[in-house]
Every structure is written in structure tokens, then in C-alpha cells.
User: Fold this.
Amino acid sequence: MASISTILKQYPDGKREHLIPILQAIQEQAGYLSEDSIVEVGKHLQLPTSKIFGVATFYNQFRFEPQGKYHIQVCRGTACHVLGSSTVQAELEKRLKIKAGSTARDGLFSLEVVACIGACGLAPVISINGEFHAKLKPADIDDILEHYRNLESE
Amino acid sequence: MDFTIEINKEQVPVQSGEYLLDVLSRIGIKIPTLCHMKDKLPTGACRMCVVENKSNGKLITSCSHPVEQGMRIDTQSQRVAESRKTIVELLLSNHPDDCLYCVRNKNCELQDLAEELHVDDRRVRGEKNNYHLDMSSASIVRDPSKCILCGRCVVVCEETMGVACIDFANRGSQSIISTTYNRGLNVSSCINCGQCIMVCPTGALTEKNHFAEIQDALANPKKVVVVQYAPSISVSLAEEFNMEPGLDINGVMNAALRKLGFDFIFDTTFAADLTIMEESTELIDRIQKNERLPLMTSCCPGWVKYAEEFAGDLLPLLSSCKSPQQMMGAVIKTYFAERMNLRKEDIYSVSIMPCTAKKFEAQREEMVSKGIVDVDAILTTRELARFIKLYGVDIHKLEPEITDSPLGARSTAGKLFGVTGGVMEAAIRTAYWKLTGEELIKFQIKELRGLAGRKEAKVEVNGLTLGVAVVNGISNAKVLLDEIRAGRNDLHFVEVMACPSGCIGGGGQKIGASPEALAARMQTIYSADMKESLRVSHKNPEVIELYRSFLGEPNSEIAHHLLHTRYRIREDILK
Assistant:
């Protein structure tokens, strides 16, 4: 919690309009927004936590669970969409048994949907901890996940 | 009137700044609405109230559009009718459609609109909502699958109650009304007032019912089933049976309760008188010691929970008195049990309340002693009506009957508890008598009457100017609390009721009652106070007998044990 108070100290006369920058800073630092952190922010800005949760869930960028060891970003930009990124996302959700925005129970993978990541030539593309996997078809997903699982067992 | 606009080819005078919807309803055009709330800022969210502006060819929401010069409004065009109908069809497309099994069947705005707008076939088939039912709260059940996202609960929770434990979450088709982190209502800051239920157009928000337990108890020959009802029930129950608003059917209600099989019928108003005896003693004590002022009432469990959550710094000001319901419960399982030679375990104690927070209050740990609760189950006014129907009792054919002794007598001072300001008036009457030995001549305190959200008065007692304030609706209380925190010190006594208008407007009352109906309930209570002769709590003969033969005097050791409670700061919730 100490780290959150450092962030809040940067906004001594915290106002409503500081909410999103504060949430971004917390996520930057902790990787997600915990219940405790939202309670702290609510106290600081004198906002009900339900409102903060409402604002945070409106935006895709905020996470409410810790990230997995391997964080998968699925690009849902226009080019990727046209070339079938929705089936890639569906396959990932099926294989990992989680919905986008959450983390698998073993903590190994987490899944996030992002807007264009600027690699339209590689569409449909996903990024795992910054490493790009290009021109994907749903059938490729199994091998990719297996690759990361093998890294763990080595 | 400032100018005229054309509505359905007729010229209608309007005032600038008026909302179109208000103009239309004034001239007798009924516009369907879902998200609209009287006296609240329009959101225009549901778009049910669209009308066509012929001057620019646009469909506009009449709730959020002020009148403009040159408007030519058509409320009956095919485009309007089609648009409204489509909205209902879309709302129904993901709705569970289990009307027959829904507690709001035949009392549902969505159902009414579907009928009014001739929705008679299923044009749009969507994926049905499938969210978890939230049963975690002792008072309120939340079924987000039935929610149509009108947002009225969010508005009332934030603006009227100042709690804001729910809000919109997610976005677009994923939108839901949610608590923080979608956790149960029981760990949210919900104060259980039930005002969200009162504004919900569908069955998404309902009270948690105790029907099965009560039926079991009534059917169990070993149980002595005792019932008590709050002061405001007798003036609001009539409306549930399509009788005139404000009609006092106390006697008939007694008869109906006997027909249902309750063994003893007591009036919580008796316990309201008892509360006054205890609370006025506490008031006088604090004034004499000049400590912990102003004394704040603790009858309202919604307010008590709010204070525990948001006003921990002011908790010492709260009266230690239990609410009338809990006092009655405690007295039933001790004094009454002894007199009747009954074991506590064999008594099943039911209360009928205008309130959903009472369900929470009854299961508070402070209200249990050695595993025995003061009150076993609670019915709201609405639920009592359903119960009477279930047992096939025709309330229209019953002759009035009286309550049972020794906990049935009441004063009209206790009856006033049903309206905002009533606890205050009743307490002042008894405090005045205790301090001066005389009765207050001007019984009715004009400044404390009526349904305003905040009222104040000064009363002269033995040279002391007693400063009193009455607030209803927690948002009004919030303002007063801030004044007290800022050092306001001319107040000795403050009454707080969570619900607007007090208990007659409680979260357990009839859904959809008009402001006129509320005023009628209030008038009935006031007129009883005019007509009847027993108008002060300290002259209630059964209260006097209770003190004489059992409690001793107010705030005696046994009274303290049975009739008083304690509070705790609630840090463990998501607020």
C-alpha cells in the first residue's frame, strides 16, 4: 500500500479529474487495480468505489487481476479484425479457459484485448510479453501456448 | 406562459425552460417513460419518451428537451409508435421473460409498456441475460438478468440516499449495474433502505422474503407465533387492496392477522412509546451533563448502518436505544414470555415493517442473545398483502378487531413515528413532561410537520431553548452532519430517517405510490393525533405497567440490557 500512497501524494488536492491518471499510475506500478487500491483512491478523491469501478471497467486498459507470467495481447485493430483476429481471440479464450481481461488460475497466462499495436503488415497478430506472433490462424495457438508452457517445465 | 408551440396540430402555451415531457403530461398526453424520475435531472437513457419534432424531422427525448420556439411536435406519428415499440422489443430480447414467476408480475413497468405498445410477437430474439443472482444481502435481492439499465436505482442511491453503492460498470452491450468489483451487496456500502426497489421498473431489485419460515411457524402447533406491526402499516396497507390511499385499516388488519393464524397481535407503536420513555431519559441526561449533543435518533436501521459506515466520528452521538421493532422483540421474548409462562424458544416473533433494512437489523449480532434473536422474521407491507392473499383472507369482508394485551396499547405520539418528524414530536412531549411535570400545551409542533426533507424548531422548556432538527433522505442528513462536524452547537436533538418522508415512504411500502398517496398517509396519522385522547407516550397504560412490574424505570439495569444496543464503525466494507 505504501506505493499507492506515493502515487496519491503527487495529487495532494486530488480531484475527480485526476482519477484516470491515478488509476493508470497504479496499474503501471502494480500491473492491475486491486480492491485495496481502489478503496485508497476512493478515500483520497472522496469518490465512492462503485464510481471508480464503473469508470475503470469502461476502459479496456484497466485490469482487475494480476497479470500472468506471460501476458498475451490480442490485437483487435482494423487490419487484424478484417483478417480474422476474432477467431484468434476465441481460440485463446477457449484454450486458456479464461475471458479477455482475466488471468488463468495458474497465473501463467493472462489475456488482454488491445487496439492496433502498429503491426498491421503482420495481421492478425498477438504479442506475448512484447514478442510478436504474426499472421496467425486459430490452429497456430495451441503450438504457441505449448512453447511457453515448455519454457516453464525446463 | 412565454410562447406557444404546436403539439399534435394544436397550439399549446408553454413556459421557457420547461421540459417537453412536463408540458405533454400537463395537457393530458401520456408519454411512456422508463428512466425518468420526478425532480431528478433527466438522463434520456431509455429513449422511451421520444416524440417527433416536425420542424426538423428529428425524434427527440421529451424528458430531456426543453421547449423551443417554433417546435412542431407530433406524439402520435407512426415513427414514434414504431420507435417506442422497438425499444421494448429490444429490452425484452435479452430479458428472462419469466413474468409468471416474478414477484413483480402485474406490477412491472416493462410488462405494462409491452402491453400498451402492442408488443404481441417476438420479432427480436437475443441471447438471454445470464448473471448471478445476488442473494448476499439480508434485505435486498439483486437479479441483474432482469435489469433494463434504466439507472434509476443508481440515481436514487447516490442522490437521494448519498450512498452510491452501485453504478454502471463495463461498456456497451456488456453494461451492467454493479457493486464495486461486482461483489455481494452485503460487503458493499448498501444501507438496505430499499429505495432502489421502490424505483426499479422490473424485478431486478426485490426484498428477500421470509415467507417459508413464517408459514412453517404458523403451521407448527408447538410455536406461539406473535406478530407486531409498525405505526405506518395501518395507513398504507389499504392501497395494496385498491382501497383509498391513507385509509386507516388498523382494526381490519388485526382481524386479518388473526385469520392468518397469528396467536398474539401487538402494535410496534407500543414499543415506539417505550422508545420515547428511554430516549427522552437519555436526552435529558445528556442535556444535564452537557455531553454528546446533539442526541441523534437510532430508530432507523438504514440510518444506523449509514452512520456506522460514513459517520464513525459521530457514532457516540447516536442514542443507544434499540429501534421499536427490536425493543418489542426483546420485550416479547422476556416480559411477555414470563407472563404467559412460555419458553423463549417456543415463541416465533414476526414483525411487519414498511422497511427492508429491518430485515438486516433483525439479524445484527447485537440483536441476538444466547442464540435467540429478538425478532425471527420480517414482512414488508407489500409482503403482508401477498401473505393475506395467499391465505385466502378477504380483507373487504372483515370486521375490525383490537390488538392483544399486554403489548397492544398505544399513544398517538408513538403513531407519529410513521412520519418524518414524529419521533421528535413524541420525544419532546415526554421530555417536556419529565422536565416540568406538566404537559406541553401546544402538542403539535407545526415546524416539524409535513414532508419537507429538513425541518428545524426551537422549543422552550423550563428556560432552556431546545434546538431540534429533523431530516429524512440521507442526502439531507449528510448536510446536517457536516454542519455538526463544523461546530454547530445550537442543536440538542436530531431525528434522522433514511427514507424520504420517513416510514410512510419506506422501502417496503407499495411500489409506485403517488406523492398524493404519501400525503394522505401522513394526514391520517396526524388526524389520529387530533382525534384520539391518549397523545403522549408516558401515559400509555401498558407501558406504565411494563415499567411497574418488570423494567423498573427507564435506563434501569434490565432496561439497559434489553432495550439498548451498541454500534461499531464499519471499515470492512467497500464504500
